[in-house]
Specification:
single chain, 139 residues, four-stranded antiparallel β-sheet, 4 strands, 40% helix, binds guanosine-5'-diphosphate
Length: 139
């Protein structure tokens, strides 16, 4: 499975604004297969664990506050070169710099409220997928 999947999160503000379905549609049109999907609200402990690598950075507290502020939608996406291709589909972390036609260009508001998360390596995709989903929840 390595190299074949990535993990995405539709972040709170995008869920609140009703962008979940349009984003999932772009994911489908982009050739990804959704092999796991759920809606949940992060608690602080889990959000801090998920973003452990950013602890200590100036934006860390704001990122945690934002990610626990409302429900999120989490999915595992399958495709060859999933991590790399999904990073292309979502665009730059800062929507002002995101390429035309990318998810962040279309649906993000700011660097913090940037609509979606995408794993940045196969190793992190594996860690993040098992963070949210048990084997029985993956299809
Ligand atoms: P990503 O892989 O493109 O999501 O970016 P990173 O892994 O570098 O950062 C994780 C998340 O932290 C981003 O998606 C942003 O929501 C947030 N973030 C990153 N850098 C900044 C920053 O400089 N300022 C703020 N406010 N948030 C940031």
């Amino acid at each position: 499975m390595n190299g074949r999947y990535t993990l995405t999160i539709v972040k709170p503000r995008a869920v609140e604004k009703g962008y979940t379905a349009p984003i999932l549609n772009m994911i489908h049109e982009g050739g990804f297969r959704i092999s796991a999907l759920k809606m949940l609200r992060f608690n602080r402990d889990d959000a801090e664990r998920f973003y452990e690598v950013h602890r200590g950075r100036p934006f860390y507290e704001g990122l945690i506050e934002f990610m626990i502020s409302g429900p999120i939608v989490v999915a595992i996406l399958e495709k060859e070169h999933a991590v790399e291709d999904f990073r292309k589909l979502i665009g730059n972390t800062d929507p002002a710099l995101a390429e035309e036609g990318t998810i962040r260009k279309l649906y993000a508001e700011s660097v913090r409220s940037n609509a979606v998360h995408g794993s940045d390596s196969d190793e992190n995709a594996a860690r993040e997928a098992s963070f949210f989903f048990s084997t029985a929840e993956r299809f």
